[in-house]
Q: What sequence folds into this?
């Protein structure tokens, strides 16, 4: 049975950055989260159709962040060294702008990316990219065209797909006998620990615990053999998976350790989710209050990073141009547009992050370290970054 525990109100499509004049009739949906007491899976209650979210004007570019570029490069090198020193047939599901596959040989690497503007980018880089959604039909086509894959990699994509049984069946069809499937998505444990409720938005159809994934994968003939806890995106898990009958890869201790850690935290207990929901409400009240205080002191407040996550915050907390002058973002195709739902203008940091700014809400709080280093002048002249993670506070320079 699915039990509701979180209601973040009416929310827009996070990827729909609007032009002036496009505000009327904006699509909104009810952002609510539910807990399945059988599989322990946390999912959205209402789903937005994939075509509305992933299309030919998809804005997010994983390569925008130095942290992400370096993290994918390091991983590609590590995997090649540990698992595939003599090369491998590689498939990436959700290849975005090629930030990961660019480190692999284009002759033996295939990509799947339903956002056709992004698929075009990686096709131009020489990687055969299928502009389609991942399912068993596509898996059969890939098997015919490219045989089996030794490595299937997918970062921040599987959590976007509603039908997990279909996803994992398709993976099973595509994996070579000793092949490995690695998926990387935000960790529910970290979300609950950090009260980073902004991980809930239209695209994150599920927020995974290791516990829930373990249950759903096992049903589909797959098994987790390693879990890496990562700091990217404010806490993610990199899950290494094999076919259940693959005896070659041993199941490592990190799997039972993570399951145990989650169990002790209360991941299996619905009361933990109810208490999380109370913390979310407190976080909202504290954020509104700190921003209002700054505003009443005549401070100019902006937001740093027009992230998808911040759409959840602004719409749930009702933060608009009454509190924030604008949002700065380095992504060219977000600049000149307006944030979804609350319609706050987006400008480039060059134009907007100047000496007139007193306070900046860290929309891209998951890149806090990178941003504090980059904006050390702002901090030195007394500028303040505000974040809501793990509670609403002003970021101290030494912590940055
Ligand atoms: P993400 O958290 O969804 O990956 O998005 C990060 C967004 O923040 C992306 O639009 C780029 C933007 N950004 C900046 O504007 N400045 C920065 O220094 C960083 C790291 C990101």
A:
């Amino acid at each position: 049975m699915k039990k509701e525990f979180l209601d973040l109100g009416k929310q827009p499509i996070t990827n729909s950055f609007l032009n002036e004049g496009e505000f009327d009739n904006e699509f909104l949906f009810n952002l609510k989260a539910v807990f399945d007491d059988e599989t322990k899976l946390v999912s959205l209650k209402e789903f937005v159709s994939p075509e509305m979210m992933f299309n030919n004007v998809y804005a997010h570019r994983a390569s925008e962040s130095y942290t992400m570029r370096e993290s994918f490069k390091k991983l590609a090198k590590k995997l090649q060294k540990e698992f595939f020193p003599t090369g491998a047939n590689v498939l990436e599901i959700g290849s975005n702008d090629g930030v990961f596959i660019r480190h692999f040989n284009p002759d033996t690497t295939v990509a799947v990316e339903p956002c056709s503007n992004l698929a075009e980018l990686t096709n131009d880089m020489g990687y055969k990219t299928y502009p389609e959604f991942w399912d068993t039909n596509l898996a059969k086509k890939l098997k015919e065209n490219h045989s089996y894959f030794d490595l299937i990699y997918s970062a921040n994509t599987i959590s976007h797909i509603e039908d997990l049984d279909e996803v994992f069946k398709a993976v099973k069809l595509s994996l070579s006998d000793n092949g490995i499937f690695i998926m990387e998505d935000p960790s529910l444990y970290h979300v609950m620990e950090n009260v980073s409720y902004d991980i809930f938005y239209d695209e994150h159809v599920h927020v995974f615990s290791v516990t829930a994934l373990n249950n759903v994968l096992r049903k589909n003939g797959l098994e987790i053999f390693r879990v890496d806890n990562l700091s990217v995106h404010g806490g993610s898990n990199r899950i290494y998976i094999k076919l259940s009958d693959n005896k070659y890869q041993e199941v490592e201790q990190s799997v039972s350790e993570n399951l145990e850690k989650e169990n002790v935290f209360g991941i299996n207990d619905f009361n933990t989710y109810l208490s999380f929901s109370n913390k979310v409400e407190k976080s909202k009240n504290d954020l509104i209050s700190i921003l209002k205080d700054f505003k009443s002191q005549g401070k100019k407040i902006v937001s740093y990073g027009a992230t998808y996550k911040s759409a959840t915050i602004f719409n749930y907390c009702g933060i608009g141009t009454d509190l924030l002058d604008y949002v700065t973002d380095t992504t060219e195709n977000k600049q000149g547009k307006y944030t979804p739902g609350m319609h706050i203008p987006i400008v480039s940091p060059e134009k907007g992050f100047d000496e007139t700014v007193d306070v900046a809400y860290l929309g891209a709080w998951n890149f806090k370290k990178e941003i504090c280093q980059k904006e050390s002048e702002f901090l030195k002249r007394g500028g303040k970054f505000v974040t809501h993670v793990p509670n609403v506070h002003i970021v101290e320079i030494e912590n940055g």
Summary: The pocket of thymidine-5'-phosphate is lined by residues 60, 64-65, 305-309, 329-331, 334, 364, 366-367, 370-371, 374 (CB under 6 Å).
